[in-house]
Amino acid sequence: MSTSTDDALGGTFLLGGDLPVRRLGFGAMRITGRGIWGAPADREAAKAVLRRAVELGITLIDTADSYGPNVSEELIAEAQHPYPDDLVIATKGGLLRTGPGQWPPDGRPEHLKEACEGSLRRLRVDRIDLYQLHRPDPAVPYEDSVGALAELQAAGKIRHVGVSNVTVDQLATARSIVPVVSVQNRYNLADRASEDVLQACERDGIAFLPWFPLATGDLAKPGSVLDDVARRLEVPPGQVALAWLLHHSPVDLPIPGTSSVAHLEENVAAAGLELGPEEVAALDRLG
């Protein structure tokens, strides 16, 4: 079965009421070095992936100051600045990097404000379209961390506020302090622990950005339901997993990441992949 490599086929979402984005975005974590640490082995190849993403119609690129650290944001600016008018760059703050694979949280207001200033410089913008708190810091009252983002918004440093890795209660707390336009939690065909958070977002029209959207684990093993659907449609299992996310909720904005142009094109093709009712029902039952 052939699918069109055109991100427009996945539809659009109005982020924060004023930023239309294609629902299938790009996560810019894996364009950095091994362990999401340092520069990539081939800097020009990483920038080629970013440029191809925009050529394919992607209008939402998600990154963070901790990816590298700093490297992902720098590459985005090198590849795309000055940015197309319809391109939304979302970044995050609230994690430190002490080495490859190490991500200690730092939700102190002073750190978040410094982190935002650094992202503004690296991305070469005066205001960040979507700035997200990367993770609650158990050593800092959550209200203080979110309050810092509210202050950054009031100061004109960020346009919209998002939160990440939250519970339903934490989302409610954040929304009591500042308008929240997006939530980014781990969610995929094999891991639906955040289904209650997704449902809360759907109820209130908040974008839900599932990270690690391609993780399928044992669900993709030969003879599995996912493998069977992928074989019938003649596409890779990961493409089916992305198509299922787009079908599962109208507020789902998957952000698969890759360092390969070929894999990027394969992912974007999921936007045009149609799943039949029986296939959707079979995939739904996997959760």
Can you tag this structure with a few keywords?
alpha/beta, seven-stranded parallel beta sheet, two-stranded antiparallel ribbon, 10 helices, globular
CATH class: Alpha Beta
Strand pairing plus helix content: what structural class? alpha/beta
Radius of gyration: 18 Å
Mean pLDDT: 96
Order of helices and strands: EEEHEHEHEHEHEHEHHHH
Helical fraction equals 25-40%
From the 3D structure, determine the CATH topology: TIM Barrel
- Portion of residues in beta strands equals 5-15%
Characterise this structure.
With 287 residues, this protein is an alpha/beta fold. It has one domain (7-284): NADP-dependent oxidoreductase domain (TIM Barrel, Alpha-Beta Barrel). The protein has helices at 43-55, 71-80, 109-123, 142-154, 168-175, 195-204, 225-233, 237-248, 261-268, 277-284; strands at residues 12-15, 19-22, 26-27, 60-62, 88-93, 128-133, 158-164, 180-184, 207-208. A 7-stranded parallel sheet has the order 3-4-5-6-7-8-9, covered by helices on one side. Strands 1-2 form a two-stranded antiparallel sheet. α3 (109-123) packs across α4 (142-154). The protein is globular, with a radius of gyration of 18 Å. The relative contact order is 0.15. The model has no long low-confidence stretch (mean pLDDT 96).
